[in-house]
UniProtKB/TrEMBL annotation:
<keyword id="KW-0479">Metal-binding</keyword>
<dbReference type="GO" id="GO:0004556">
    <property type="term" value="F:alpha-amylase activity"/>
</dbReference>
<comment type="similarity">
    <text>Belongs to the glycosyl hydrolase 13 family.</text>
</comment>
<feature type="domain" description="Glycosyl hydrolase family 13 catalytic">
    <location>
        <begin position="70"/>
        <end position="411"/>
    </location>
</feature>
<keyword id="KW-0378">Hydrolase</keyword>
<dbReference type="Pfam" id="PF00128">
    <property type="entry name" value="Alpha-amylase"/>
</dbReference>
<dbReference type="Pfam" id="PF09154">
    <property type="entry name" value="Alpha-amy_C_pro"/>
</dbReference>
<dbReference type="InterPro" id="IPR006047">
    <property type="entry name" value="GH13_cat_dom"/>
</dbReference>
<dbReference type="InterPro" id="IPR013776">
    <property type="entry name" value="A-amylase_thermo"/>
</dbReference>
<dbReference type="InterPro" id="IPR015237">
    <property type="entry name" value="Alpha-amylase_C_pro"/>
</dbReference>
<protein>
    <submittedName>
        <fullName>Alpha-amylase</fullName>
        <ecNumber>3.2.1.1</ecNumber>
    </submittedName>
</protein>
<keyword id="KW-0326">Glycosidase</keyword>
<keyword id="KW-0119">Carbohydrate metabolism</keyword>
């Protein structure tokens, strides 16, 4: 009998052990939490991306609507520098924004307001004074002149970036005092002396008046526009030379952000959209998904997803990512949900990078805040997430796992695009978890660069992925 070759046996046993660790043991090591977590198929539509209306065809190669849809930039913040240079400042940004994949910019109210050169525009006086009439103490607005605004819009369109106007039609400010027979007092409702001479208003155009004592809401004690008044309807959205059609056809705005839509009926926006057209989103400051969804459907408009905003705040800052499984507007009605992390009115979320990773990998129309992008956060990381959104965030959504510290969701792909898996880790240690993908026997990678793993999915589509502490990874096919 030959002497046993212990060296050969040792090498064979070692190789078998290594094989076992890389296959069988890992299969048996699938985390029981992920295996037992009931996958939540959040949306079940056909997977098409969010649409803002007619897509622009790129003439410059800078921007086209992408597989994942578009990204909006809120191109201002509260109390941007006064001095009439803001339109020029934004104009210097649009080429870089277009190269990064920004598809639209939302501008502040562009017309002359009561505080003239110092106003942020939310106290409108003359809807047709874009900084070319000397009234309310200045010729230019806080943001600049009409010529500079037109130049900005033209530059944005050259980059195939759409431009949305902030429209304040709930209230006015800066009118002269007049005797008001409906109140029996003097009210600041005489706007017949506005410099443009367009859309002159009197007490008959404000509540209380012949149409009633009030509508759905007033704001700040300002005169409350009565949208039931024929003069108001004509000048806001019906006339060919009225506010909506002038902004769209002459100033070349592509859409609208409607301020304080709680202050008037949803039918106002529905009629505006039917008569004027263009993309629209309403500021309905309410965390109740039912209220948001009802308004969006009745107004035939998108709406800011305040339900998502407040859930993200509680989830990320309250260290309970389970809350991300709760109802939100983008889940209820993804084609009418505009998501955001902060804006000029509210800035409560501290874990902003995680929040941006969430909205830029999920459904809806994500918005980036100017100061987050240009001043406060890591621009390279945001650009990476914008790229991921535009190129990989496709299809409907399934939540694969959630607990206090972890959240994993899958975008299921659309029209040949494979979609993605996003892993958010709010803990202080690196985490790993087995999850089920839509890909069998395919190598995947993390497109954020936060993980250096290049795992291959098993035949049953399961794979182990990882995520660093207080961070995120986004996985898709390595192609």
């Amino acid at each position: 009998m030959k002497k046993p070759n212990f060296k050969m046996y040792f090498i064979t046993a070692l190789l078998l052990g290594l094989y076992s660790c890389n296959s069988t043991d890992e299969v048996n090591d699938k985390s029981p939490e992920a295996s037992t977590f009931k996958i939540i198929n959040v949306t079940t539509h056909d997977g098409r991306p969010f649409s803002t209306g007619n897509s622009k065809t790129s003439l410059t190669g800078k921007y086209v609507d992408n597989p994942g849809g578009g990204v909006m930039m809120q191109a201002f913040y509260w109390d941007v520098p006064s001095g009439g240079n803001w339109w020029n400042t934004v104009g210097t940004k649009v080429i870089a924004w277009g190269n990064a994949g920004i598809g639209s910019i939302w501008l502040p109210p562009a017309s002359k307001a009561q505080n003239g050169a110092f106003s942020m525009g939310y106290d409108p006086t003359d809807y047709f004074d874009f900084g070319d009439f000397n009234q309310n103490g200045s010729t230019e607005t806080r943001f600049g002149s009409k010529a500079e605004l037109v130049s900005l819009i033209t530059k944005a369109h050259t980059e195939n970036i759409k431009v949305y106007a902030d429209i304040v039609i709930n209230h006015n400010s800066g009118g002269a005092s007049e005797s008001n027979p409906f109140t029996g007092t003097n009210t600041w409702t005489n706007f017949t002396g506005i410099a443009s001479g367009k859309f002159k208003r009197t007490y008959a155009d404000f509540y209380k008046n012949a149409y009633g004592n009030n509508d759905e809401g007033a704001f700040g004690g300002f005169p409350d526009l009565c949208h039931a008044a024929p003069n108001v309807q004509d000048w806001l959205w019906k006339r060919t030379d009225g506010v909506g059609k002038y902004y769209k056809n002459t100033m070349k705005f592509d859409g609208w952000r409607f301020d304080y839509v709680k202050g008037f009926g949803s039918w106002v926006i529905r009629d505006w959209n039917a008569n004027v057209g263009g993309f629209s989103v309403g500021e309905l400051w309410d965390s109740n998904v039912n209220i948001l969804n009802d308004w969006a459907n009745n107004a035939n408009s998108s709406v800011f997803d305040f339900a998502c905003y407040y859930k993200m705040n509680d989830a990320f800052d309250g260290n309970n990512l389970n809350l991300l499984t709760d109802d939100m507007m983008w889940k209820r009605n993804p084609y009418k949900a505009v998501t955001f992390v902060t804006n000029h009115d509210t800035d409560e979320i501290w874990a902003k990078e995680l929040a941006y990773a969430y909205i830029l990998t999920h459904e809806g129309y994500p918005t980036i805040f100017y100061r987050d992008y240009e001043e406060w956060l890591n621009k390279a990381k945001l650009n990476n997430l914008i790229w991921i959104h535009n190129n990989k965030a496709t299809g409907n959504t399934s939540i694969l796992y959630a607990d206090n510290d972890e959240y994993i969701a899958r975008r299921n792909g659309y029209n040949g695009n494979p979609g993605l898996v996003v892993y958010i880790n709010n803990s202080t240690v690196t985490l790993e978890r087995w999850i089920q993908t839509n890909w069998a026997s395919k190598q995947i990678k993390d497109f954020t660069g936060n993980s250096t793993w290049y795992p291959t999915t098993q035949g049953d589509q399961w794979v182990k992925i990882q995520c660093p502490p207080k961070s995120y990874t986004v996985w898709s096919l390595n192609i």
